Amino acid sequence: MKIAIASDHAGYSLKQDLIAYLKELGHEVIDLGTNSEDSVDYP
User: Fold this and answer.
1) Tens of pLDDT, residue by residue, the chain (43 residues)
2) Contact 3, 22 (CB under 8 A)
3) What local confidence, expressed as pLDDT, does residue 1 receive?
4) SS in 3 state form for the chain?
5) Closest CA to 40 of 6, 5, 4
6) Phi-psi label, residue 5: left if phi above 0, alpha if psi -120 to 50, beta otherwise
7) Which of 8, 15, 29, 43 is the most exposed place for a label (fewest CB within 10 A)?
8) What is each CA distance from 25 to 2, 3, 16, 35, in whole angstroms?
9) pTM of the full structure
10) Is the CA virtual torsion 7, 13, 16, 17 positive or negative?
């Protein structure tokens, strides 16, 4: 199954863990960002 996943900076670490878990289960994961824990808050 293809699964797309995204998060803001606060969820980055959890997103990385979830991506690894989903890949272990054999899913194709599309990471839509963010790509770091740097703040991405909008004004």
Assistant:
1) 999 999 999 999 999 999 999 999 999 999 999 999 999 887 6
2) yes
3) 98
4) CEEEECCCHHHHHHHHHHHHHHHHCCCEEEECCCCCCCCCCCC
5) 6
6) beta
7) 43
8) 12, 12, 15, 22
9) 0.87
10) negative
User: Token pair 């699964």 is at which residue?
Assistant: 3
The pLDDT value recorded for residue 27 is 99
Can you read off the two tokens belonging to residue 15?
């997103």
Neighbouring residues of 31: CB distance < 8 A, sequence distance ≥ 6: 5, 6, 15, 19
Dihedral pair phi/psi, residue 2, rounded to 5°? -90, 130
